[in-house]
Design a protein that fits this description.
Blueprint (H helix, E strand, L loop, with lengths): L3 E2 L9 E4 L9 H14 L1 E4 L6 H8 L20 E4 L33 E8 L7 E5 H6 L3 H7 L3 E4 L3 E2 L2 E2 L9 E4 L1 E3 L6 E3 L5 E4 L4 H15 L5 E4 L6 E5 L3 E5 L11 E7 L6
Parallel strand pairs: 2-3
Antiparallel strand pairs: 1-2, 3-15, 4-17, 5-15, 5-17, 6-14, 6-16, 7-10, 7-13, 8-9, 11-12
């Protein structure tokens, strides 16, 4: 079976792979082609898919252990998670103002001791326009730093905890204990370095918290410059997978969130401890 790998979607990353049905078993040769594209471009877009939540989960398992959905023993445990802007009554709501919303730059589950390697989202319903997801390439952001800055931040460790950003906390804290990860992490597959920060980053170990928060904010502004960002404009049936180890991402509040529905299915593949 042949697949079509398109040209880069932006200078910051992204590539499209078409002529493939992800609901079917994935031959080893195609898995290798996908992994090569993923390694080189960090974001892979598969358009025009038709996937159940079970089929998406099965596809994600090609790339490692998948975080389960639901409790042990649940019939719906091995399915993709539901990501939606709907409330419990099925009405669209605007949650973009929440300090822990997906509309802020983040990398998935950075407050875990072992964060995930990759995430994939499948578009079930999307707004007529807008509702994009942006990806910031923190490998490029790190590479563009002055050498003096690279030397200064080498070895620094960032404390992450759900519900905090830049030293500010929200009232509904979870019980997860704080963890610390390298501010400059090394990609386990390529050896390249990238910044690791974003929402849920509290402070830098060994530096006064206010000073560390300001440093993190400055680095975040640097690595989310437009030249380092790929914006994905969703079409129904898109499945997008991305590398959490060298990207930040956020949903974009550029649609009528209180009126239009946005429903996606998410699968998260377990990773390794950052170093």
């Amino acid at each position: 079976m042949e697949i079509a790998v398109g040209p880069p979607l932006s200078a910051a990353g992204g590539v499209t792979i078409s002529e493939i049905d992800l609901a079917q078993p994935l031959p080893s040769a195609l898995k290798l082609r996908i992994l090569e594209a993923f390694r080189d471009h960090h974001v892979v877009v598969f358009p025009s898919q038709a996937l159940t939540r079970e089929e998406q989960y099965a596809f994600a398992r090609n790339f490692g252990e998948v975080e389960p959905s639901g409790q042990p023993g649940s019939k719906r445990r091995e399915v993709a998670h539901l990501i939606t802007n709907l409330d419990k009554d099925g009405n669209p709501v605007d949650r973009s103002s929440s300090p822990v919303s997906n509309y802020r730059w983040h990398t998935d589950k950075s407050w875990h001791a072992v964060p995930p390697s990759l995430t994939m989202l499948y578009a079930v319903e999307v707004p007529c326009s807008g509702g994009d997801t942006e990806f910031a390439n923190t490998r490029l952001g790190y590479a563009a730093l002055p050498n003096q800055t690279k030397r200064r931040i080498a070895g620094w460790r960032v404390v992450f905890r759900w519900g905090v950003s830049g030293g500010n906390s929200v009232s509904a804290m979870r019980d997860d204990p704080p963890v610390d990860h390298p501010l400059v992490r090394t990609h386990p597959d390529t050896g390249q370095r990238a910044l690791y920060l974003g929402n849920h980053a509290s402070h830098i170990l060994g530096i006064p918290e206010a000073e560390g928060a300001a440093i993190l904010e400055g680095l975040l502004r640097h690595t989310t410059q437009r030249r380092f960002v790929y914006a994905h404009r969703w079409q129904r049936g898109d499945l997008v997978m991305w590398d959490n180890r060298c990207l930040l991402h956020r949903a974009v509040a550029n649609y009528e969130m209180g009126r239009e529905r946005r429903i996606l299915h998410r699968s998260v593949v377990c990773g390794t401890k950052p170093f």
